[in-house]
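Purpose: get a first structural picture of the assembly so the mutagenesis plan has something to point at.
Setup: two entries, given in the order below. No constraints added.
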Amino acid sequence: MKTIPQNWAELEPAEKTTLEKLFWLGYAARHKLIETTQFSKSKLNSVVAALIDQGFLEDRGLPFQTGGRKAESLCFKQDLGVVVGVYMGATGFDVAILTPNLEILALQTQVAAIRLGPGVLMPQVKAMIEATLQHLHLNPTAIIAIGVGIPGPIEFASGLLVDPPIMPGWEGFSIREYLNQAFARQVFVDNEVNVLALAQQWHEQKNQKNFLVVKIGTGIGCGIVCNDEIYRGSSGAAGDVGHICVDPNGPLCHCGNYGCVEAMAARPAIIQQALEATRAGKSPLLNRILEQKSELSSEDIVQASREGDAVATGIIQRSGLLVGQMLAMLVNFYNPSHIFIAGRFAHAGPLFLAAIRQSVYQRSLALSTRHLEIRIADLGRQGGVIGAAGLAMLETIRS
Amino acid sequence: MKTIPQNWAELEPAEKTTLEKLFWLGYAARHKLIETTQFSKSKLNSVVAALIDQGFLEDRGLPFQTGGRKAESLCFKQDLGVVVGVYMGATGFDVAILTPNLEILALQTQVAAIRLGPGVLMPQVKAMIEATLQHLHLNPTAIIAIGVGIPGPIEFASGLLVDPPIMPGWEGFSIREYLNQAFARQVFVDNEVNVLALAQQWHEQKNQKNFLVVKIGTGIGCGIVCNDEIYRGSSGAAGDVGHICVDPNGPLCHCGNYGCVEAMAARPAIIQQALEATRAGKSPLLNRILEQKSELSSEDIVQASREGDAVATGIIQRSGLLVGQMLAMLVNFYNPSHIFIAGRFAHAGPLFLAAIRQSVYQRSLALSTRHLEIRIADLGRQGGVIGAAGLAMLETIRS
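Result (structure tokens, whole complex):
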């Protein structure tokens, strides 16, 4: 691979605008870029020519042939380099190497508890990036930028973690600085739900202006897209919906309050409920799994429900209803056009989604739900690394 | 008053930008406009010269004299015309005539129940605008534009009311068309809380990017400012927070659900609670007022609390705690920098505000409340007409 042009920061405003529009569109014909940039045809042509000349873009002539016209489809030049996307969850992390057009070249997953702290986790992340690059016969100099999604609140500007409840030991640690020193490339770090929201926004080619991405996992969080941009709030804490109260008489949460939706409907609560029911002899099926594995996972509960286990089905339904109660509040306040459900539990099947919808439609006002769509986030498991890499590309273009 | 220039729509983009910045700043020196428009000094000077020439601006040379330099303070030209601000509540409406710099020239108030419908209300509004103009010796041709705030959900683009719960009989009625036909001027209609949010934004000279204005009256609603703009949601329903559930075991609301904050903490609920306590013989003070007037108002309850009545104080405190519970959810989700409390009940005194704060700080996450300020909206009762007139000016400049 040839030397990478590192002159992103020196691009003209019109060039940056064109690259950003192309980023959102993916492969795009010139007429589409004229439409979205609102440049004149001659201005766009000259900007595109300059970008091709500098090695940022190429014209693949693919994949659409319309009418008798010469097909043309612009995209980021393949040998521009690669983007690294890292998505860290509570129980493991994903590392992917992607093209500048966000096609995944390689994806690796590792089980590792985030509470082991940065001293244990970060060398593993670094080693996995190196190994994945090597596997693709790439040198670290091929990296354009690195994007990281993490399951904790972060001050976006400084890249520092702030008081991360499920990430003890990470307070004040700079993931950005660590990876920047390791690879000598720009690093962008954001909360996992913002990264998932960006992935959804990219998947939709920025066609939806105001929507939410809700992740249900070890915690519950919400990525917010407002007027086409990720909304982070006045101190970067927006979307921290896991501690919204859905039942004042509910159980005590680790935050000190009662009845938080996270304490009642996220993965640990679901597993706890399943364990209690199983130990009380209410589910022979879950009992069999528990005896085999001496533990239960959320996947086991989903599987048991699919096989007709009433206890598992009840637990999933209850979780969906509670999540829906919380979402009904957000719908009344925010009036989004879409809510996308993400996280492994999103794939619990139609039962979970139906329970969420039932709650939302019952508790929200008619005007807010008239055009509301609630569905599973489109990119599934890959949304994390695609969003993280997307963040890196977008911020590089804007820098 | 001389003929009004009606060429707002023909202004150049740079002229519109300058007028909008001036609108937010109020009186402004040139260096301040250079700072906010980011125009060069020579560009700004030529734009300002053109605007003065066309009769939009004037230089008052007021009110600040800094150093040895000639004082200069630009503002909209006084004889440009007037703006009409109409603020309609559930139980009455305000009409004001303002200068283009949003100084109130005259303000009139009338008691009238909104549920009497447009056939009764709108001729009253029209007559009051005419009378107020006459009182100022102004002709309707002096009107630049008319802004209206209403207590119901509205589709901002069409100006039509959509399914307004406390405005039966208004469904599908066009306030815009009615006033446009009456005065032959552009009319802009928005929900009351958006109008209050715009007033607050104007008062702050647009210094706060992300904040909420919560109005507690017959209903409870929330105006949202997101990235410096009023946020209306994907179908204009954003901020309809009155039906957020604060107690699943709470009383039945007219919306069909249980425990809505509006059904438990807004004015009708407060009055109902006071009546019940009074009839049960728990408050001699309120009983005396009830015997005199044969009804109780929220003002009576506030007054009783000021005079040491424990029942009144308890009711106000409970309402504040419930509103705070709802706001805690919004704070976790939206992470605003400020929450401004509006509506007559906002002036219930420090007790009400203290109860709201107590709930919010107890139930919200630390990162979200670290820099959060909760206080009474600055413009008080006048916020309604100032916001409505501000909407009319802003949309005229942008049109």
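Chain B touches chain A through 49 residues (CB under 8 Å).
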